[in-house]
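Below: protein 1.
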Amino acid sequence: MTENERLDQLFRRYREACPDVEPSVGFMPAMWNAIEARRGWTYRLRTYTRGVVAAAATVCMAFVLFDMSSLADRPSIYNETYVEALNDELAAETLAFADIVAARNPILDLDSDLEEVIE
């Protein structure tokens, strides 16, 4: 007996042991019902979780795009360097000190007090 004959004999025995099933009209719906019956609540939870995560990612991306679109509308204070901000703060402190000097000496002129403080 050759290899091909033994293989043919094996296939014949297999066909006799497992005959072909003729699918009926309800074959696929019955198969899907069996598959759905095996799936438990964890499968549904996993499906809902994937949907929630996808929705959250979409919302986050929308927030990022909205924030990036409003970058040009921000005031110049966000574009200042640290040194420029310190320089502006120094001027504000000088003016605040000039107000204190003017409050202690109401007779003095505010402009001359400011010049003294700056020097």
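Below: protein 2.
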Amino acid sequence: MAGFPQKMEDWLKEWLTEIEMTLLQVDRFFQDMQQAIGVAVADLDATLETTLESAIAQLQRADEPDWLPPSEEREPLLMRLEDLELLEWPAAETPSHRACVGCRHYHGQYYGSNFLVCAMHPYGQGDDHCPDWEGYAHS
């Protein structure tokens, strides 16, 4: 039994050496993975940048109306169309929501099966008077 403590000590040293070797291998593995992932991300970034630039350019070309003849008059016509988009259109009559008639906040659109009256009162004002009612300013 005199050699038992020595064997335990040797076994413990071997075990610690194996753990250190395993840790070194794991560390090397993660360093290699980090490098490989870095290269893959750089390649993906370059590919995405090229693809996105191409897609954006294609969408910008598709945004131009093709029904207008190419001419010098095209730009003023496009500006007039953009001006029309900026106009505020009067709200439709809403007999079921009398407090909303003529209000500039009236939205009146369906989203799926949900009808949105306005942002302040999504389901409409309960009575005939709305404290948030604002008419259209005519200038």
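Residues 1-64 form one domain.
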